[in-house]
Design a protein that fits this description.
The structure is a homodimer. By secondary structure, chain A is an alpha/beta fold. Chain A has 2 domains: about 325 residues, TIM Barrel (Alpha-Beta Barrel); about 80 residues, no CATH class. In chain A, the strands form 3 sheets. An 8-stranded parallel β-barrel of chain A has the order 1-2-3-4-9-10-11-13, surrounded by 8 helices. Chain A has a two-stranded antiparallel sheet with strand order 5-6. In chain A, strands 7-8 form a two-stranded antiparallel sheet. In chain A, helix 9 crosses helix 12.
């Protein structure tokens, strides 16, 4: 029985898990982010679980953290997403493949061509997570001494998007005749030369790749700032939201969906998928113990640094095994401080446990049995806080296998998630329309 | 029995065949350059034939030819090589994968990262064909009004190469400890920050990908100019040569190999593989008839344009079905004119046939039985005109299947080509050493 609304699930791979202690978890593959055999297995397992997409983050530099912390992080390296995802396309059949690519450190012709190629290679399964790149170290790898300022990054990003989508529309869907008898490979009347001349880019076109199978690969964004939300409302089809509580989720959902009507878009044309870190256990206690174990593997100094930032106060002098002391007022963000204090009280965490929680993963987490995680997901979906989730696994392969093996069947039993793919493209999975060609609307 | 020297064979895919009439040949797949199922089959067939590499050309714009000719050309579009080859890596085990990437229209950090990713994904099978891009239309897709001048392209290309190889050496081969117990993911003492500051590039590094399995992906070049030859002698490990005759091949081979000693390199460290267009028939007559059929499918006006350029004289007024008339002297290259006239006389070609030959493929061609093609290849190899070939197939799948099914076994019988892969990496296949890490020589 299908519920009136169903969840969409992306697997957020950064490149495998986001938790900084995950690679040390018992049974975890410490080289997973660099071992294609493992990554292939993960993608195939996710496809067995009918996930909408394998969603890959990107980094154009080492993460900017102190070396003492960096050397303990498995996220220090990862494959280029647009090199990994074509390989995964060749060993999967249905799952969508979303790659992150920066508009600040790329050329639109390359980005248009690579995503168009991936869409063709994969039979219409590509998605582009459009980011403007906030790591300032990336600029130093691309000839810039200073990071590009936020507003300028967004202006460039918007023009970049226009160029890329314009290039995707270079060819009408029926442009390629391939008439062997007449010797006509394409119809020149069904070819458009973009000839873009804007503030940031001059790109003549046309793209030397046929229009993507999906028209355009699915457009994904994650911006949470005002500029980011507005750009997403104008252009995105999926938003990767970072809403830590149900109330935050509902507010964000209302805000962004509310912007669509004025832009001539229907609410269904933009799916909002918050990130959700999941830890599955046979009992609630087992799940909590798993998470505690995972957090205990976080480098303590990294955790203390994260806690100090949250509190606006140096936490390194606190007794690690004591409870959080009273802290004098500071200029730190009140919400961060209040959340940290409330978290410590609610779960009865020591300073060490709180620090390692913040240094591991501090956003929305679902820790429990398959049934309780399904309850939470159902509540978010039915109370209009989301259209689904970008799931982040506690560790690989165990955490991924647990989710696919236990939570997915529970969601399916409740009619909240598909039991089989109905379509072939990522747009099919997400229920998104195929964009018309702006130059060949017929 | 292995001969004292053996051939190396690359399959040059542009993206499938270079001959402009190939897609119209009876039985040819007209959509081969855009159909992953076909491309996968080709790569797997080439791997069964023990080819050293699948070698993919690249174009950053439509080919710059008149629309009347362009619309008849199957080479108008192709996948981005660095998107296609990872997909082929996932469905093959041994064959090398060489992608063309331009130093004029890319950033070195991206190129270093993508090839390093491909090398890891493929188990050490990546090669980089370093090009400076001669199609002036490409500049218009990357914000430039005018094409970058030849000497400047080469200076930038050389610095680009230094940055990319420096980034590949960011990590010692043993840098990644992945010590789950101690929580140490890498050893910071085995990490080098490049901090390159040159005329064209400032790139801090390090690369956020481990050192490639091959140390560096194999470096391939095709430059034939003086600047191109010298750059190749300094940096290349494979040269894709364009030498139309045995004597040309021998001269080029002597010239380039002769430059190596002064650079401290051994002759074996640079393999010279001329492009060879092959047409296989059961008899010599059948092979010639196949080629004539193929040439007859070339758009006549394209052929006449090519012939006019070769002759330095407008050929469009000639009787297409007559023989080539006497032509008054001109300023055209003597060698091009003489070659065209000699070709027409040697093969008794009409104006139409000559034009279509030049408009199809006019370089080194081996047209005959498996035995006669093997004879030619053996002669080139043993007379030091090459170390092997980049084979260009007449059409796909037929021409490719003919070569793998008939010519490869003949070469194997003569001990001129491997019967099975002995190693796993492209360097293994080519007999090239693994480069030392310049920052961690131990």
């Amino acid at each position: 029985m299908a519920a009136s609304r169903q969840l969409h699930l992306g697997a957020f791979m950064r490149p495998t898990t986001i938790h900084t202690g995950a690679w040390r978890y018992p049974g975890a593959f410490p080289d997973a982010n660099f071992n294609f055999a493992h990554l292939k297995r993960f993608a195939q397992t996710l496809e067995q679980g009918c996930f909408d997409a394998f969603f890959m983050a990107d980094h154009l530099a080492l993460l900017n953290m102190p070396m003492e912390a960096l050397k303990r992080s498995h996220t220090v390296t990862s494959f280029d997403p647009l090199t990994l995802l074509p390989a995964l396309a060749a060993v999967t059949e249905r799952i969508g493949l979303i790659a992150t690519a920066s508009t600040t450190f790329n050329e639109p012709y390359h980005v248009a061509r690579k995503f168009a190629s991936l869409d063709h290679l994969s039979g219409g399964r590509a998605g582009w997570n459009v980011v403007t790149t906030s790591n300032p170290d990336a600029a130093l790898n691309f000839g810039l001494e200073e990071h590009v300022e936020h507003g300028e990054r967004y202006r460039r990003g918007r023009e970049f998007f226009d160029v890329v989508t314009g290039l995707w529309d270079s060819w009408a869907d029926d442009a390629f005749l391939r008439d062997q008898e007449q010797g006509l490979f394409f119809d020149p009347d069904r070819l458009h030369v973009l000839d873009h001349r804007g503030e940031h880019f001059r790109v003549r076109g046309p793209l030397n790749v046929a229009r993507p199978i999906q028209g355009w690969p699915v457009i994904v964004q994650a911006g949470a700032s005002e500029a980011g939300r507005q750009l997403a409302a104008e252009t995105a089809e999926v938003i990767f939201a970072a809403t830590p509580t149900l109330a935050d989720g509902q507010r964000f959902y209302r805000d962004v969906k509310g912007r669509l009507a004025a832009l001539g878009r229907a609410p269904e044309q933009l799916k909002i998928l918050p990130g959700a870190f999941v830890v599955v256990g046979g009992t609630p206690e087992e799940a909590r113990a798993k998470r505690a174990r995972l957090d205990s593997l976080v480098y303590y100094e990294s955790g203390i640094a994260a806690l100090s930032i949250a509190l606006g106060h140096d936490a390194s002098r606190f007794d690690p095994d004591g409870s959080l002391p009273e802290i004098p007022p500071s200029n730190a963000s009140h919400s961060g401080r209040e959340r940290a204090i409330a978290l410590a009280q609610r779960e009865g965490l020591t300073v060490r446990q709180l620090a390692q929680r913040l240094g591991g993963y501090a956003g929305l987490a679902m820790v429990g049995t398959a049934a309780s995680i399904a309850d939470q997901m159902e509540e978010w979906l039915l109370s209009e806080a989301c259209d689904g989730f970008n799931v982040m696994f506690s560790h690989v392969p165990g955490g991924l296998d647990d989710f696919v093996g236990q939570v997915v069947p529970e969601l399916q039993r409740r009619g909240l998630f598909r039991r089989a793919y109905e379509g072939r493209t990522l747009r099919d999975h997400l229920g998104l329309p195929r964009p018309a060609n702006r130059f060949f609307p017929d």
